[in-house]
Design goal:
The chain is α+β, with helices and mostly antiparallel strands and 218 residues long. It has a single domain, classed as L,D-transpeptidase catalytic domain-like, CATH 2.40.440. 17% of the residues lie in helices and 23% in strands. The chain contains four helices and nine strands; from the N terminus they run E-H-H-E-E-E-E-E-E-H-E-H-E. The protein has a nine-stranded mixed sheet with strand order 1-4-3-2-9-5-6-7-8. Helix 1 runs antiparallel to helix 2. The longest helix is centred in the N-terminal third of the chain and has 13 residues. It is globular, with a radius of gyration of 16 Å. The two termini are 23 Å apart.
């Protein structure tokens, strides 16, 4: 489950990322046909599927603050954990074109002990099985118990244990769209960004190594 929104905004320069980030939210949307390999629906820019201004502002602030540790600055990902797991809330944003792909993503069981579908809290603690807040940089790939996965390095005090906690990007059956039809919400991870099995390839293709993921509930 994904969507692509094409924004008619000027090409972003590194010098103007902050202003341009907000422009992603205020410019008019220009629908375009999605590539065949990326099933999509097009929403107007005023849609709730577009990153909310305060969340984007915080993501841009983190992007600048950690600039020296972010090797690739052409695309970013933002996880909006104020939204329920039933909603696409993982945004892959092209910083030059403004094109945004929005996907489903699961949160950690420790962040939602009662399995309500809503993230209740973040944690950086070992063994918490909770999602962590803050900026991450995508690192290397490996094959683990969830198949091909990508390690993440936490850049903030709120997620500094990401590597030791093995918080990664991976695919999971419990993050597939059919979970919404049968349960009305996704399952939960152990704190990882778990995406649907059908979306993993495009996440890796667009995120790659050295780019930022920003996670927050605003």
């Amino acid at each position: 489950m994904s969507q692509i929104v094409q924004h008619s905004v000027p090409t972003l320069s590194r010098r103007n990322l902050g202003k341009a980030g907000l422009a992603l939210l205020s410019a008019a949307a220009l629908p375009r046909v999605a590539a065949a390999q990326v099933p999509a629906t097009v929403q107007p820019l005023a849609s709730t599927r577009v990153v909310r201004p305060e969340l984007l502002r915080r993501a841009m602030s983190a992007f600048h603050r950690h600039g020296a540790q972010i090797a690739r600055r052409d695309r970013i990902a933002i996880a909006d954990f104020s939204q329920p797991s039933s909603q696409p809330r993982f945004y892959l944003i092209d910083m030059a074109s403004g094109m945004t792909t929005t996907l489903l993503v699961a949160h950690g069981s420790g962040s939602d002990p009662a399995h309500t579908g809503f993230l209740q809290r973040f944690s950086n603690a070992e063994g918490s099985n909770a999602s962590s807040e803050g900026a991450f940089v995508a690192s290397d790939y490996y094959v683990g118990k969830h198949g091909l996965s990508q390690r993440l390095i936490g850049l903030d005090p709120t997620n500094s244990n990401a590597l030791s906690r093995a918080l990664v990007v991976h695919a999971a059956w419990y993050a597939n769209p059919d979970m919404l039809r049968t349960h009305g919400q996704l399952g939960r991870s152990q704190g990882c960004f778990a995406v649907s099995e059908g979306d993993l390839q495009q996440v890796f293709a667009r995120l790659g190594e050295g780019r930022m993921i920003y996670s927050a509930k605003v």
